[in-house]
Amino acid sequence: MKKEIIIIGLLVIQFAKGQNKDSLAVERFTIHGQSTIIQQKKAGFNAPYSGDNSLLPSAESKTSITSTLFIGAKLWKNASFFVNPEIAGGSGLSEALGIAAATNGETFRIGDPAPKIYLARMFFRQIFSLSDNQTSSKDKYFHNHSDFNQLADFEPQKYFSITLGKVSISDYFDDNSYSHDPRTQFMSWGLMGNGAWDYPANTRGYTPSIILELITPKHELRYGYSLVPQVANGNSMDWKIGKTGAHTLEYTRKYNVSKRSGAVRFLTFYNLANMGNYATAIIQQPVNPNIENTRSYSNHKYGFGINVEQELTNELGFFGRCSWNDGKNETWHFTEIDRSLSLGFQLSGNQWHRKEDKIGLAHVISGLSKEHRDYLKNGGKGFILGDGNLNYAPEQLTEFYYAAQLTPNIFITGTYQLVINPGYNTDRNGPVHVFSIRSHFRF
């Protein structure tokens, strides 16, 4: 495996050396890459009891790594194809169990921490211009720079597009300039997106999907249909189209207030899968209920999210998210959050002559539906949580980070996270202190 990675790396370096540096270049082919290493340490805390899915009360140290190639080609006018091989290894604290708004967005709920190579994304995209005429004038087209899964090319200001293939659905929905990418911004699962959006994905975060986009400079409308896993947090997808599937719809309004840019996004989703029901599981087995015994294709999950971002000054930006789902049937894809509210700020380093450095401070409050609470209190387990008992209170996480740019392509971040009521359980409230160092390289 090491030999394969070295060979790929050498080929990438050779290709990168030959790329056109012209800022208005039009690419036929592009290749980029990233590697992110996150080292986390957790101090020990007191807990009167623990279950199979609890955050361990002992001190821990864990490391995760992901490396991705972003390879793209222009097929014909406004059509492109991308493929992303990826390698990931390591694990989160307590194997990413016991905290709903888990502390490392780069980790997965996979038992084996050994590095694995897999296909993350492979998709086709076709854009249909809605501009009045085919001209490259700035009021009709803008220039995309070469980036991850993005060719340097002129793109219409107004267009309709179709994307088809294996993707990460969060690449298209619930975006936010200040909090969306755990490789460069906030790392908590509860901050990188709307926590109550059970967004469709396999264990590693990808799924076959079709995405339709209608884009203008101020308005964006997106719809996505995605496959869902055969089992909760599974890798194999369920191809029973019609009986299963995830529908996501989002409207974005971009605006300016006193010449400061902002955006508000309204998201709604509806998921169909072979889900279990919390209340039925308790009726069947009041002590240590097992939701897997209640799974049925007639069950579903729906919810919504609101996502706001606002530039306040040249250096300071604000974001906030609020999300909710019905919480009657089991979490299927993301994490065990049924209600979520997050607020935060990001400050750039202009004032101390470090323009590309970023400071972030945010807080997220996560909650559960009554049915979900009762299930955990009676000894039930999800794929994230299960202490064997539950003295319920909302889970709270505060995150602070400083991201420093060492070179144009290398970033180092120090992060502190404070977790109160991990897994919504005041009986196991440390509070929990988590310290992280993140190294991020891109080309």
Ordered list of secondary-structure elements with their pairings:
Blueprint: H1 2-17, E1 29-42, E2 60-76, E3 79-90, E4 116-129, E5 141-144, E6 153-156, E7 159-167, E8 207-215, E9 219-226, E10 228-229, E11 237-238, E12 245-257, E13 260-272, H2 278-284, E14 300-311, E15 316-325, E16 339-349, E17 354-367, H3 370-377, E18 395-407, E19 410-420, E20 432-442
Antiparallel strand pairs: 1-2, 1-20, 2-3, 3-4, 4-7, 5-6, 7-8, 8-9, 9-12, 10-11, 12-13, 13-14, 14-15, 15-16, 16-17, 17-18, 18-19, 19-20
Brief overview, please?
The chain has three helices and 20 strands. By secondary structure, it is mainly beta. It has a single domain (25-442), classed as Carbohydrate-selective porin OprB (Porin).
Radius of gyration: 22 Å
Which assembly state applies to the chains in this document? single chain
Cross-sheet strand order for the largest sheet: 1-2-3-4-7-8-9-12-13-14-15-16-17-18-19-20
**In percent terms, what proportion of residues is strand?**
over 45%
Sheet/helix structural class:
mainly beta
Topology pattern, helix = H, strand = E: HEEEEEEEEEEEEEHEEEEHEEE
Supply the number of helical segments: 3
Output the CATH homologous superfamily.
Answer: Carbohydrate-selective porin OprB
Q: What spatial form do the alpha-carbon principal axes imply?
A: globular
Mean pLDDT: 92
Percent range of helical residues: under 10%
Q: Quick one: how many beta strands?
A: 20
What is the terminal-to-terminal distance? Answer: 21 Å
Q: Can you tell me the CATH topology?
A: Porin
